[in-house]
Amino acid sequence: MRWISPCAAHSAPACCKSPAREPHAVHGPWRDRTLSDPEAELSALLGWWLPVGSLHAWLLGLTDPAYRASSENGADGTLAAFEQRAWRVVLPTYQLATLSGREPGVLVPRRIDLTHGELKLRLTIDDWRRSN
User: Fold this and answer.
1) Residue 46, H or E segment
2) What is the pLDDT of residue 109?
């Protein structure tokens, strides 16, 4: 599945804001769809709730400023884990990514473990690239 938010054209991922109520294009094996309420509609498609409106922040290793969160920092000062919107998000590894051709790069998550009740997801991001 590939998810394209309206912020894909922005040059810096930190400026991306992807409210859950903005239309998003979702491409998957079933068919392409444009979702007018991505959080509700994608949750219905998947059969479980996914906080789409917060993923833009979580994928960057940040909490979503629109919601309360409790967080834990690692020994190196990076965000190690947080709880937000009934999900536990653990960021065990980070990597440097050069997103705009400028050095030294941006520290972004390499792996993200998400837990919501019995549901567990692991995202591994091998390559960060700016969308054109």
Assistant:
1) helix 38-46
2) 95
